[in-house]
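Regression test attached.
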Amino acid sequence: MLEKESLQLLFEALDKLELGFQGMPEFNSPYQLESLRTVLLEVATRMQDNFPYPHPLYVGQMLKPPHPIARLAYMLSMWINPNNHALDGGRASTFMEKEAVKEIAQMFGWETFLGHLCGGGTIANLEALWVAGKVKPGLKIVASEQSHYTHERICGVLGLPFAPVKSDCFGRMDLEALETLLKAGDIGTVVVTMGTTATGSVDPLPAILELRSQYHFRIHADAAYGGYFTLANNLTETTRAAYDSLSAVDSIVIDPHKHGLQPYGCGCVIFADPTVGTFYQHECAFTYFTSSELHLGEISLECSRPGASAVALWATQRLLPYTREGEFATEISHCRTAAVALAQKIQADGRFVIPFSPELDILVWTPRAKSASIASQLAKDIFTAAAQKNLHLAIAHLNVELFTDVHPEMEPDQDKVTCLRSCLMKPEHLEWVEDIWQLLEQVTDQVLADK
Ligand SMILES: *Cc1c(COP(=O)(O)O)cnc(C)c1O
């Protein structure tokens, strides 16, 4: 199940890397290979205690294995272990980070911008909202109730007022609800989610931009999950329009460690207005000496950061550039094709109800039942039975109103209904749709027969 062949390249690359440091006297780091072996094999045993995340039959949470090039480039840079806080700690990897972030900005149509990598989407959103609070002091930040739960918490950390906006039957921000809030006149920033974590719904950015011309708020796009779908060639017209408006927002967050084939620890925040960099100004007595060029630590809230993340991302972009016709874009499109295909099979099967066709590559559905509580129990039973057959789904608790129109017979005897949820985010998933469906069918037969 685990790809190993590419590891051979690491030896050749290490030899090449070493050529850059010729002339340094030899030295040896003390360690005993046999002791390393003992511990490493113990680690391997411990790590068996995981779901099979890299396998296409794992369709549960947002987990996508890094590309072999990302793994290799990350490992290679571990021999240097650069710190992208300052050029003093990571010269090459700082330049690679600047180039990699530029590729991301250009993907969204930005030539001028300010941005950097960071630990992940949460930290990236924290920086974006921190800046939002500086630009619009004292004003509220709003995000849809389907937005990532961390927005509210981040606002708590930053001491900024936060309010949720109702979402509609597609899991998108409800425009009327937003306008009602805007009329109060105390909203500084609207967080627009480009691909919600639960259902992959994309907020109606074009209409929100129209509201901005009237109410003059700032817009932050949380594209942590969905950002790369801007490269897809098979979005619906509505979703495409939202992505095509992205260049008009004030800040964007995207997670290369979600759909960008990177190991965890790679988020990215970019700002349309480079002058927000002045908010980060600080004095540092000990690191900024070797260059008068910008050190990334001067425009980042974090101090030490892994240069390895930048190196891995840079290498991945080199191999798979972010072009609309490229292999990377094709694979992103395939993820959506796979999700739509699976959704059609589920839709066609009378035993399930699906609230809407997937906008991206995440789908949710629930067993057709007389009540929300019965549907929820069946969903949980199918989830468990599927895992026993090596099909790993996820569970989501969604508002029962999502099903009012599509399944009016289901008695809403509880506020939430437990749904099955799948993220078809691996390049292999398109080829596996039929296998996934057959397992799901079998398992459903079995669960329903037991009732
Ligand atoms: C995953 C996600 C986040 C949080 O990002 P992390 O990288 O997990 O910290 C924020 N927003 C959305 C929409 C996400 O999908």
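Expected vs. actual: identical. Residues 120-122, 125, 148, 150, 193, 197, 222, 224-225, 255, 267 surround pyridoxal-5'-phosphate (CB under 6 Å).
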